[in-house]
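pasting for ref
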Amino acid sequence: MMNIGITHYLIISSILFSLGIFGIITRKNAVMVLMGIELILNAANINFVAFGRFGNYIQGSLMALFVIVLAAAEAAIALAIVLNIYKNFSTVNVDEIDKLKD
């Protein structure tokens, strides 16, 4: 049988982080950018939990819980901002929103 070590968790975390960065850089839709941010936060959670588990520290799990709360707040506020942008500009493409309303 194969033992799952910290290396496996770090590889999965780095893949998620890379996909999140790729999603933020390449997407024009604001919702897709938010999904990229969520992937980055989930990658950080995997790191916290892995280091907490293999280091026998409770702080890793507590930090992961804090990041989950932060991600939920970020999603709620960001979706409210996206809805407001759509109401004012009739688009959610990040490239087309280049002026501030007076």
